[in-house]
Amino acid sequence: MELGLILGILGAGLAVTLPSIGSAVALSEVGRSAAGLISEEPEKFGKALLLQVLPGTQGIYGFLAAVLVLQEIGLFGDEAVEVSTGAGWQILLACIPITFAGLISGIFQGKVSVSGISTLAKKPEEAGKAIILSAMVETYAVIALLLTILILNGITV
Amino acid sequence: MNLPAKKYEIIALKSKCEEILEEMQNIGVAEIISLKMDESEVDESEFEEEKNKAELRLAEMRFAKSFLKDFAEKDGFVSNLIDSFFPEKKKYSLEELQNLVDSGRMQEVVETCNKLEKGLNKIKAQRDNLQREIQELRKFSGISVSTIEDFENFSVFVGSIGRDKKEDLMDALREKSIFFHIKWGGEEESNRVGFYLVYPKEDDEMEDLVKNIGAKEETVFWNRHPKDLLSEKRKEIKELERKESEKIKEAEEIADEIPKIEALIDWYRWKLDKYKTFEDGEKTHNYFYLKAWIAEGKVGKLKDAMEEVTPYIMINEIDIEEDERPPVMMQNEGLMESFETVTGVYGAPKSDEPDPTPYLAPFFAVAFGLALSDAGYGILLMAISFLMGKKLKDSKAFFNLFVIAGLFTVLAGLFTGTFFGTDLFEGLRIVDAVDSPIEVLYLVSVFGIIQIFVGLLVGFFWHLKQGDKNLAFGSKGGPIIFFLGIGFFALLGEFAVLVGSVLIMVLLTTIFSNEKNLLKRALSGFGSLYDLIGYFSDVLSYSRLLALGLATGIIAMTINMIAGIFMEMIPVAGLNVIVAGLILVFGHIANLLINALSSFIHAARLQFVEFFSKFMEGGGRRFKPFSKQGRFIEIIKK
């Protein structure tokens, strides 16, 4: 197999794996504290679920970047493409922003969501604000995703 | 828009005050200002008795509700979920509610609940007792003696042991002596078995031996054959269970009354509210005095209604003190009421700030559309929101917001030419976001610049209206000139225009500064250059719209592709269509839900962080009128 193709697959793999780990860690933390709340007030399940899924976006962003990479290197849908080593490196580097920003912002967004669960417990009418606070952290995953997309868009294989 | 709050004093004859308060609560346009210095300072209220009665009734209704809740028919998971987000209130007219109270029907329900609860508790205690006794007796079932006494030369040990140790015990006994008699009991499925052991008195180590193997000494509490007792007790339990299910059935029958109980919970809460409001006022021997916030223009309605109750009442406007913060009364109607949902997430503006709702409405809709940007999803969102709004009338304003947002999503989707991730409407496409994202990046940045510019304009005119020239021209006017400079620079390409606008901005900020000291004025002027970095990052923040739009589109494309792969992979005709269809339906619905949520949150964030900061701080206290606002019911006019 060409080194270029290998690097491309590595990039796609990292872009899915690390942000997904970030999201999974965050979702489990929020889920645990939400479960505690649900045991007392099951009617708050819907809003708790909303707070829980928020840090799940990072995993989706990573997946999105990976799909773009797979299209670029011809493993998805289109015909196989010859990926030069240089292009492979470029793709791998393009994946760096969403890979790491996704991993870390996911975990930290989870922490804000966990605090949001206590907002939901004490002042359910203010849960909307807790959701916005949690989404603030996601900004940086969005920016990273944007950069990854823009770089991938600029690479010609 | 924000209605200006005015402060009023209300003076009335004390003898009429209950009717007055009742009518004020019905109309619900006044927020009462408590004149109590502190909470503990409550003098003996004239309504002490009524208050206590209402408190008692409220507690009873709450008890009945929590008791009956366990017997109510359970709704499905989905309808519970929907109800937790969008609760629907039952509609009552005041007469209907009064009739319900007067009928005393709910009082009967409370009494029945009381009886049922006591009965059920008693049955439970009896059953627990019986079950304990049965547990004990089961070990001894099969032993035919009913009383066991010591003999002159023999000792008797009554005990129980785990079934698995039975053989060990027998072995140990056999090893020790041949002079013993043991009788075993125990039902087949019980894991402990009872026995009695008769042995010669002089064998005084027998007891220790038996205990060492793990037997436990038991007291004989039965005086008849355990087997007979067992079947008797089991019969008793059956009888108890029959009684219990009767009571449960009765509880289930009256569980239908929960909505009415909830209505009365609201009713008694209002009553308590009324008596508390009475305590909030000042009283003399004959008169009653209240202060209240009322929206300008709504006091007439109150006055008219009051004069029907009594001619001996005065409602006068009084001055607002300097350090007082009036409540914020946002009032938006029609479409704008829907957008108030967005403002509501942030909170209220201060009482001297504009209501941001009408300003954010177009920007929120466009931002939401760009973030979701798929014509198919837009149509789906519109359809779902429209139907939900029809079904859940209390949340209609909320769903209408998504009908509008869905419309803009359709427009944005046509603009980028995506329909459920396909190119179906390629002919209408203006920009391909996937192939040329940079163009879309420019577009969303321009959108951001426009919104920030509008925000500054709103701030400028608002400060001007408030008579604060320094803030208007200095902190808003300067940046406005700068943004105009950017606009002209983009149109004309003259760099000098941009530089000139920056200079004017510095100059304006210097001239219109609150600082007296000339040096400090100049510093604040140059400080405005620093703000430009803030505007730059504000504009960059709009790039999220591109990323979110791409996210929706590309994942939709991926769902289509995966469905296509399954369509080809599965060799069975028919089955492949079903599998691919399921992937399409569930994939697109999940993608729509996740991305609509993201789009809402991020579009709202652009309003709160990038837009609001240009003309308001927020943190106002929302108007809380003294009214009959129910948690469970809504009062309607007949």
Describe the protein:
The complex is a heterodimer of chains A (157) and B (638). Chain A has helices at residues 3-40, 45-53, 57-72, 85-122, 127-154. Chain A has 157 residues and is mainly α. The longest helix of chain A has 38 residues, at 3-40. The radius of gyration of chain A is 18 Å and the shape is elongated. The two termini of chain A are 16 Å apart. The mean pLDDT of chain A is 90. Chain B is built from 20 helices and 13 strands. In chain B, helix 1 runs antiparallel to helix 10 (299-309) and helix 12 runs antiparallel to helix 20. The longest helix of chain B is centred in the last third of the chain and has 37 residues, at 575-611. In chain B, 62% of the residues lie in helices and 10% in strands. Chain B folds into four domains: 1-38 and 284-327, Alpha-Beta Plaits; 40-129 and 231-279, no CATH class; 143-224, 2-Layer Sandwich (Alpha-Beta Plaits), CATH 3.30.70.2750; 334-614, no CATH class. The model of chain B has no long low-confidence stretch (mean pLDDT 88). In chain B, strands 2, 3, 9, 10 and 11 form a five-stranded antiparallel β-sheet that branches. In chain B, strands 6-7-5-8 form a four-stranded antiparallel β-sheet. In chain B, strands 1-12 form a two-stranded antiparallel ribbon. Chain B is of the alpha+beta class. Classes of the chains: A mainly alpha (157), B alpha+beta (638). Chains A and B meet through helix 2, helix 3 and helix 5 of A and helix 3, helix 11, helix 15, helix 19 and helix 20 of B.
Structural class of chain A: mainly alpha
Strand tally of chain A: 0
| Number of DSSP helical runs of chain B | 20
User: What is the multimeric organization of the chains shown?
Assistant: heterodimer
Shape of chain A: elongated
Task: Describe the structure concisely.
The complex is a heterodimer of chains A (157) and B (638). Chain A is an all-alpha fold and 157 residues long. Chain A has helices at residues 3-40, 45-53, 57-72, 85-122, 127-154.
